[in-house]
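== Sequence and structure of one protein ==
=== Format: two labelled lines per protein ===
==== Data for this protein ====
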Amino acid sequence: MAYLEELLEPFESTVLGTLGSNGYPFSSYAPFYYDGEVVYIFISDIATHAKNIQVTPKASAFFIEDESITENIFRRKRISLQCDAKKIDRESEQFAPIMQNFQEKFEGGTLTMLMGMKDFNLYALTPIYGEATFGFGEAYNIGGEKMNQLVTRTGDSGHK
């Protein structure tokens, strides 16, 4: 059984989909850290996707294989997670360990600099359902107790 943690390992950023106040979807991207259950993003409150999450605490996180890796554009590996979103307060006991993991993943000073900026905040994106596609006819739902496993499709898309 494949787990999301292995599948998301090569990715450093996720494409975010959020819902704007005008009712239209908005796409952007953000670096992320995944702990095996939750996708964490550290984004500025000035950014449109942060404002959207604050109003409608839901987001999609989309991960897609680089185009240069495959010979057939239609066979790109991709994972789409539909998530509930929640801001993690800087004062919470979760904040420091998650940010430490972020720093280890992205070895460099940029994240340290951003941590000092008060408009940047940590958000937890908790998957409630998702899909993974690895080529023609190789599609799975995301499921399991912690919503972190590939589950063979049975004809039901798993959407709520």
